[in-house]
Amino acid sequence: MDRRSLLAAASALAAGAGHAAAPLVVRVAKHEAMQDPQVRYMLLLLRLALERSGKKVEIQSSRNVMVQSRSLLELARPDPGLDVFWTMTNPEREQQLLPVRIPLDRGLLGWRLLLVREAQLGRWAGVKTLEQLGALQAGQMNDWPDTAILRANGLKVQTGTHFESLFSWLAEGRFDYFPRSVLEIGLEAQEHAARGVVIEPHLLLQYPTALYFFVAPAKPQLHELLTQGMEALVADGTLERLWQAQFGDVIERYKLRSRHLLKLQNPLLPTATPLARKQLWFGL
């Protein structure tokens, strides 16, 4: 079964599950499509995991698009405006919120390609080390954990507060490259090709990280249900199958095995990250 068919079948199964009891209502942030092109996949996992509890699930999105910083504030409130949010983990988030420590992306968020200006491609052929990369400047959002990770590895970072403006800044030369995960870079390169933005063809950055579901601290029962449901999806292979359908082609699409790999340290990786559970992670 191909990617589209598998995801469609899983969606139909989730949508068609019948339950007599009142639905379990789960509130999530409305995401800007360009900033999170995997929304459908994440919502499907959320629904499938929670339906393992035997409950009918109703997922409600916020009326307006919420940036990451606003979503995390809403989640942490004593009377939260959201119930679940998916994002990269770090110690602060794991202290303030309830993490479900199963990487939804099998760690792919830490596999980074670079958006660069097409007119500057020639300069990138000679970049082979972190020291050489450090002579150039990256662009990132100011509230992303990636910003601190890049800086901790000696890389210079220009930050902004509006996601779409970063592509304009790159095209205008305000910084040299925009590291993006293999999950999201393809659509972004297409959307901004007219600005002369392309994917750099040689380099691959990688640092260990995880994309988790985080639950509001005020909702411990929901956290327990979601944790149990995600473990069930791991145990029966559902998570692996859906991940393969969603992301399995990125290795060949971006020729990851033939790229020059630069490994970065992640000082923000919490000690509780389940790195020893090898079946949860992608590796070349």
Give an overview in words.
This protein has 284 residues and is of the alpha/beta class. The protein has two domains: 3-107 and 208-248, 3-Layer(aba) Sandwich (D-Maltodextrin-Binding Protein, domain 2), CATH 3.40.190.10; 110-206, Periplasmic binding protein-like II (D-Maltodextrin-Binding Protein, domain 2), CATH 3.40.190. Helix content is 37%, strand content 21%. It is built from twelve helices and twelve strands. The protein has helices spanning 3-16, 39-51, 68-76, 91-96, 121-124, 130-133, 145-152, 163-172, 185-191, 220-235, 238-247, 250-253; strands at 24-30, 57-65, 84-88, 98-100, 111-117, 137-141, 156-160, 178-181, 197-199, 203-206, 211-215, 260-263. The strands form four sheets. Strands 5, 8, 9, 10 and 12 form a five-stranded mixed β-sheet that branches. Helix 2 packs across helix 10 (220-235). The longest helix has 16 residues, at 220-235. It is globular, with a radius of gyration of 19 Å. The model has no long low-confidence stretch (mean pLDDT 91).
Radius of gyration: 19 Å
Number of strands: 12
- Return the CATH architecture of the largest domain: 3-Layer(aba) Sandwich
Low-confidence runs (pLDDT<50, min 5 residues)? none
Name the helicity range: 25-40%
The residue-averaged pLDDT reads: 91
Biggest sheet statistics:
5 strands, mixed
CATH fold name of the largest domain = D-Maltodextrin-Binding Protein, domain 2
The structural class is alpha/beta
Total tally of structural domains:
2
Strand content: 15-25%
Q: Report the top-level CATH class of the largest domain.
A: Alpha Beta
